[in-house]
């Protein structure tokens, strides 16, 4: 048993090391599905109960590679590239949580997955809330990673629309320096340049349509606070103690309002908590699932 302290309403502080386990995944399957005019890429690893992981902005399903390699020993891990990101094509520069949710359901339907644990990182969180509003019967559990249920404030709206405008004016690579500083702690950016380069590479792969659609989605996302009290499945909330995009206070608010939630705060991690300390994240998910979602 790994050294976790559990509490119902208090955060769990994870003290595992930074090194991520990167075991080779078994039985990787890649595919595409058409959804609402977009061609959506997905990847499946492992066997067992299904777990769908939805990435944040402006990343791709590859963001979860060091999580899927471990979690796929227990779960059938499904990742997808949201429209305009990674290997998924976006026919237009428009998107919304509703469109992303439709794409995710199209992937699950293609794979004949009726029930899953749904996980969302950052922008993926509002997509998971939308999925729950649409199809709560398909949820075995929920994992919320470095995200928020709040709608964007006026300040945040201007931030995301500005990111989109910059990408349109100067190209997608121009937004990477603006975003990378909040993804990882300063210590990690300095001491683990390969991880910084990995994230930068994912961002640079994004299409302009993807970035414009994603930035608009973040700026106009619906208020999911009323959804929280309706959630009736085991929920794990994970946040980095040094997250400056959606600081721990946002996760604490979700924890207080979701009836069956558990909060894990990972020290020494920023917004990209599940790869900055992949070992801690993977262990937290497995322990939570064994106690809750897999019963």
TrEMBL record:
**Secretion signal, residue range per the UniProt entry:** 1-25
InterPro entries assigned to the protein according to its UniProt record, in alphabetical order: AB_hydrolase (IPR050471), AB_hydrolase_1 (IPR000073), AB_hydrolase_fold (IPR029058)
Which species is this record about? Deinococcus metalli
Q: Which residues form the AB hydrolase-1 domain?
A: 49-278
This one is known as AB hydrolase-1 domain-containing protein
Gene3D superfamilies per the UniProt record, alphabetical: alpha/beta hydrolase
Give the domain of life.
Bacteria
Q: Which Pfam families match?
A: Abhydrolase_1
Name the keywords, alphabetized.
Signal
């Amino acid at each position: 048993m790994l050294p976790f302290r559990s509490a119902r309403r208090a955060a769990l502080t994870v003290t595992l090391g930074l090194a991520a386990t990167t075991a080779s995944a078994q039985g990787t399957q890649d595919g595409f599905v058409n959804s609402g005019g977009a061609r959506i890429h997905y990847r499946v690893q492992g066997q067992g109960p299904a777990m769908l992981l939805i990435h944040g902005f402006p990343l791709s399903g590859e963001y979860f590679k060091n999580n899927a390699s471990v979690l796929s020993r227990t779960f059938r891990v499904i990742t997808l590239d949201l429209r305009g990101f990674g290997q998924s094509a976006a026919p237009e520069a428009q998107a919304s949580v509703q469109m992303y949710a439709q794409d995710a359901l199209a992937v699950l339907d293609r794979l004949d997955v009726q029930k899953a644990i749904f996980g969302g990182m950052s922008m993926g969180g509002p997509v998971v809330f939308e999925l729950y509003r649409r199809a709560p019967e398909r949820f075995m559990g929920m994992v919320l990673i470095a995200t928020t249920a709040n709608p964007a404030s006026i300040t945040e709206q201007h931030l995301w629309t500005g990111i989109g405008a910059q990408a349109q004016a100067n190209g997608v690579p121009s937004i990477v320096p603006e975003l990378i500083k909040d993804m990882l702690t300063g210590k990690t950016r300095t001491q683990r340049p390969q991880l910084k380069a990995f994230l930068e590479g994912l961002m640079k792969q994004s299409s302009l349509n993807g970035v414009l659609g994603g930035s608009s989605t973040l700026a106009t996302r619906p208020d999911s606070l009323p959804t929280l009290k309706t959630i009736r499945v085991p929920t794990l909330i994970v946040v980095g103690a040094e997250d400056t995009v959606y600081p721990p206070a946002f996760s604490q608010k979700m924890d207080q309002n979701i009836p069956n939630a558990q909060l894990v705060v990972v020290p020494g991690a920023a917004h990209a908590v599940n790869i900055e300390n992949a070992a801690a994240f993977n262990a937290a998910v497995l322990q939570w699932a064994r106690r809750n979602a897999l019963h």
